[in-house]
Amino acid sequence: MGPAASARPSRPSSRSGSMTGRVRFQWMIPHFSYKEIWEQKAKHFFQDHTESNRGGGSKWWGFVPHSRWRIPGPRFSGLRSFRFRHVPSHLHGADMADGPVAQLLLQRLASCDGGLDSLELSSALGLEHQVVVGAVKSLQALGEVIEAELRSTQRWELTPEGQETAQDGSHEARVFHSLPPEGLVQSELMRLPSGKVGFSKAMSNKWIRIDKNAPGGPRVFRAVDNVEDLVQAKLQLVQDGEAERLSEKERNELKKRKLLSEVTLKTYWVSKGSAFSTSISKQEAELSPEMISSGSWRDVKFKAYNFSSKGVLPEGGHLHPLMKVRTQFRQIFLEMGFTEMPTDNFIESSFWNFDALFQPQQHPARDQHDTFFLKDPAEALDFPMDYVERVKRTHSRGGYGSQGYKYDWKLEEAQKNLLRTHTTAASARALYRLAQQKPFSPAKYFSIDRVFRNETLDATHLAEFHQIEGVVADYDLTLGHLMGILKEFFTKLGITHLRFKPAYNPYTEPSMEVFSYHQGLKKWVEVGNSGVFRPEMLLPMGLPEGVSVIAWGLSLERPTMIKYGINNIRELVGHKVNLQMVYDSPLCRLDT
Amino acid sequence: MPTVSVKRDLLFRALGRTYTDEEFDELCFEFGLELDEIHCSELWKWRAFYPYPEGFLTAFGILLTSEKEIISKEQGDEKAEGASDVILYKIDVPANRYDLLCLEGLVRGLQVFKERIKAPRYKRIKPNNGQIQRLIITEETVQVRPYAVAAVLRNIKFSKARYDSFIELQEKLHQNICRKRALVAIGTHDLDTISGPFTYTARTPSDIKFKALNQTKEHTACELMDLYKTDNHLKHFLHIIENKPLYPVIYDSNGVVLSMPPIINGDHSKITLKTRNVFIECTGTDLTKAKIVLDVIVTMFSEYCEKQFTVEAAEVIYPNGKSYLYPELAYRKEMVKADLINKQIGISETPASLAKLLTRMYLKSEVIGDGNQIEIEIPPTRADIIHACDIVEDAAIAYGYNNIQMTIPKTYTIANQLPLNKLTELLRHDLAAAGFTETLTFALCSQEDIADKLGMDISATKAVHIANPKTAEFQVARTTLLPGLLKTIAANRKMPLPLKLFEISDIVLKDSSKDVGARNHRHLCAVYYNKNPGFEVIHGLLDRIMQLLDVPFGEDKGYVIKAAEGSAFFPGRCAEVFAKGQSVGKLGVLHPDVITKFELTMPCSALEINVEPFL
Questions:
Q1: N or C: which end of chain A has fewer CB within 10 A?
Q2: Where in the cell is it found (chain A) (predicted)?
Q3: Which residues of chain A have a CB within 8 Å of the CB of B465?
């Protein structure tokens, strides 16, 4: 029982907990080294078989769903195939029900009225109590053969010193009896085994007296003729199982003298069950093809299943949770009629990443501190030059109704290659391509792919993450349209309470941040960013005047972390991922 | 997004009413601000909010004794002793609203928004005595920092709070629009301690010698640059001029150094609480931004001048002899059709109502002409308004985003998936069904990961290299998925064997045929990690993938594997995969050196192919 008990802390506190609860539990797994878990299992494995008549072995399987712990194949293949694979855990409970102790128990039960106490039975059979308990449990596993009620009783027992006292008398009585009529020199008395304790007790009982002026040193004499050793009498009562005849005070006094101790005993009160029978025949584990063909299954008794154990998990591969969420987002966009944009270039030029979006060349986002620039290939060489001219003019001098930023726009700055900081760069390329198609036809685009920021890293920020972006281009789109489409999009994610806050993005105007009320946090949290692309971005591309482009973006990681209850992004993305989390993650159903 | 910290009580006093935190949060939200944090500051927290290292304080003429004394002066000694109960609001301000970067601007913006005051009109005036302050720019500045603008705030009254706000606004402007002083640097001086005309010139560093702010003695510019190398605040600005042959410097007519922009001011002209007349100079490499910065400072703080909202002009004379009066304080008029505003927002307000909405946004507007035209006056504080769309946004904010009727666009389109992503999605599911678990590893990694650890030289890869990685983890974009998978195994060594992992994702290779000189390739990588190499498992997976891709076994149009060599593989245990007549990747048992370098202990076989030929 010991090792099983010590393994118990690894159980989830509630097996049928919420999704988050379960995920959290799985995070706990790394705290136990694999080796520890194996060693514990191995112990139980052996205990189960070498001491099979002791029962309790089945208990381990009841507590820890073995499928969780995934025993490696080849290293322990022998064990695995024997124990962990072919014998399903739900059968283990019935292993020893046909053992000799169980038979004896049933016979005794048949011949008695009412029931039996497991402790009494063990002393009657001359067995250790644990063995009887094992038999009780194995019979319990058969179903309704017996009923067993767990009782815990407080019992008083003599300590070894108490047993000695009950037999030979108390220390004080022993001192009294060892005194001859002429008395004994004190120093000699003290050398007796009961001397020290007995002397002071006998003195306070006034059984003995001391003459300090006796020749040859202090001398001890009997003070009375007879004594009654009550301590011994009381202990003998306890020994006879009549501890209840002592008062609370008396028992505590003896306990204080370390002669008595109180123990808690767990016993079973066993009575006949509704399917009681003394003939528990040898049971078959499972149905076999032979039984089916011969029909022998009709005459065979099968071991009962233990339905409270866990099954064996299927051996399949698993998809990564973030990718599962990505699949759902793609699905949502496709349901809404959005076409996927190509995003197959992590490397982008500053031109498409910033300049094309009317983001000025001095913008802080273009700082070394925020963006990864490339050393090799350092520069982009090929641009649609007439478009570049229009972009340059709009930045430096304005046009298309704009004042421009009034600065010296430099091609060299636009040529600088970088790791794209947003997929809006890909959207800019897609919109430029759209603008080259004449006549204009409306478009709805989306993309989900990686972007890179040279930022300070923390529990929720990595240097790379996935950006989700949606874009709609058509004549006469309004801010109300943007809000309407956002509402539909977020409804599909299961997010319904939306609020819009004015915001600033360099390439959208108007811009708005999307907030949703988070029930758990009891506050509004930002779930996305959106806006209408600036005319200074669209008109130089060649899109017709009157065409508006509305767009929104959000990260893929954030909703995933919320969905799967993950606090540290490194546990989700990158090589430090917890594979157990990947194995155990549930389906991604965003709208539930 | 810049964050402005304001003392709540000062803010409420200026707004003329109090709010609960929730009410103020709501007001901010509506106006496009975000009440980020509310802080009950204790003495130590004060430091957290005013983290100006001494260098900064000294650079801008601040006479600070100690924070404790400030608090004690304002609130009494007891509070300064322990903790003060000052509540600070940290408010996030949109990055283009420089006029909201200080308490004065925030209050003015909110009061106009709530129609409690009318937007003040800022005026540039000539000095009473006709003696205009002059700043003469010499041609030496062209090489280093060619532009300068200047203005005078006359008869200003500072209090401790106003003074703090004045300094903090400069700091916020420096951090944001000034791009850490690279584009523009601000110097403010006690005009009564100096005498014009002033000269903005550039000299060799050894020729510049003055007593810099809060220094006890004179230093040459070279000495100062050395001195500030260890200054936590100033060291970030040194690079702007460090390697220039000439350093910019401003002298008064007596040769007193006002400042050595963009690093430090002189001690002589430093501002104190008693300063009544402030000379402001902004030097920079971007004239437009210098003008905006000057406009923002003077519009915000002319509130405290004897003649409120007036600014005394200064004349700046350029090397070519042309002279300009600053600050510009230009008001510009724009005409926007009411229809356009309604159409872009998706509302139907009357022109008069739209004009009223815009006026609340600090854009004084009126209906003119045929009744559909709205004339909008853009004040010097609103440098962010550069297009009609900016005006439309302000109308939408004043109308209230959350009052706009949501509608679904009628845009009808047929959705298409990107073929490569469609194939990837299909393959992922079947690879998982084949017993392999998906991983998601980083696209950036170290050179070592993709070269040394795989037994290759980095020059043999076609890797793109990052110029400014903060750590080795971000030196290159991966050229292969294998290192990420092996690192995933290394981080999961406690997991039961075998480990069967895969990833389908992009790698990056240099490609001179692309405009940016590089492109992504979609790779599929799988590894099998166990006590035995399990080549047959990985080989079987390849067979399964080909089955899924409907590629038969065989030469020509089918697939075959042929013995090959690869530095990452154990000799004789590596094969190249040919499909549809081209090489698509390799599979094999990894070389023990590779296994060891990735801190693994068991044999491992791997497969990596390019998915794109199967489209």
A1: C
A2: Cytoplasm
A3: 374-376
CATH of domain B332-401: 3.30.56.10
Domains of chain A: total: 3
Considering only residues A80 and B102, tell me which one the structure prediction assigns the higher pLDDT: B102
CA of residue B106 relative to chain centroid, distance: 21
Chain B residues with CB under 8 Å of A402 CB are 386-387
Min CA distance, B519 vs chain A (Å)? 5
Residue B390 is nearest to which of A349, A442, A509, comparing CB atoms?
A509
Phi and psi angles of residue B258, each rounded to the nearest 5 degrees, phi first: -80, -50
Within this chain, do residues A362 and A403 fall inside the same structural domain, yes or no? yes
Clarify whether residues A236 and A385 are in a common domain.
no
Same domain (yes/no): A145, A231: no
Chain B residues touching A69 at Cβ < 8 A? 496
Chain A nearest-CA distance from B195, in A, is 33
Task: Please state, for a pLDDT cut of 90, what percent of chain A lies above it.
Answer: 36
Hey, which residues 330-359 in chain A have their CB within 8 Å of chain B?
330, 333-334, 336-342, 344-349
Instruction: Report CB contact under 8 Å: B508, A501.
Output: no
A485 close to B (CB below 8 A):
yes
Whether residue A313 lies inside any domain: the answer is no
Gap between the terminal Cα atoms of chain B: 44
Residue from the list A330, A336, A579 with its beta carbon closest to the beta carbon of B437: A579
Domain boundary among A207, A225, A259: A259
Average pLDDT, chain B: 89
Between helix B351-360 and helix B103-113 the angle, nearest 10°, is: 160
CB B381 within 8 A of CB B296: yes
Beta strand pairing call for B323-326 and B147-153: unpaired
Strand partners, B279: B152, B189
pLDDT at A528: 92
Q: Note whether A110 and A225 are same-domain residues.
A: no
Domain of residue A106: give its range: 100-157+266-272
Shortest distance, CA A90 to any CA of chain B (angstroms): 23
Over range B321-339, report the average pLDDT.
Answer: 93
Within 8 A of B516 by CB-CB distance, chain A residues are 345, 347-349, 377, 380, 417
**Rounded to the nearest 5 degrees, what angle is found at the Cα of B173, between the Cα atoms of B391 and A358?**
45
B544 contacts in chain A (CB < 8 Å) = none
Q: Does residue A569 fall inside a structural domain?
A: yes
Task: Evaluate the omega torsion of the peptide bond into residue B498 and state whether it is cis, within 30 degrees of 0.
Answer: yes
Residue A486 distance to chain B (closest CA, Å):
9
Which residues on chain A are in Cβ contact (under 8 Å) with B409?
472, 474, 477, 481, 484-485, 550
pLDDT at A95 over 60: no
CA distance B351 to chain A (A): 18
Mark yes or no for CB contact B484/A575 under 8 Å: yes
**Does A402 sit within 8 Å of B417, measured CB to CB?**
no
Report the chain A residue with the minimal C-alpha distance to residue B97. Answer: A504
Domain B419-614's class?
Answer: alpha beta
Question: Residue A554: what pLDDT?
Answer: 93
The fraction of chain A above a pLDDT of 70, given in percent, is 82
Instruction: State the smallest CA–CA distance between residue A526 and chain B in angstroms.
Output: 11
Architecture field, domain B3-96: 2-Layer Sandwich (3.30)
Beta-bridge partners for B520:
B508
ipTM over 0.90: no
CA–CA distances in Å: residue A328 to residues A321, A331, A448, A560, B531: 11, 5, 11, 11, 37
- Banded model confidence at residue B148, pLDDT cuts 50, 70, 90: very high
| Under 8 Å between Cβ of B298 and B329 | yes
Secondary structure of residue A511 in the 3-state scheme: strand
Contact by Cβ (8 Å): A284, A303: yes
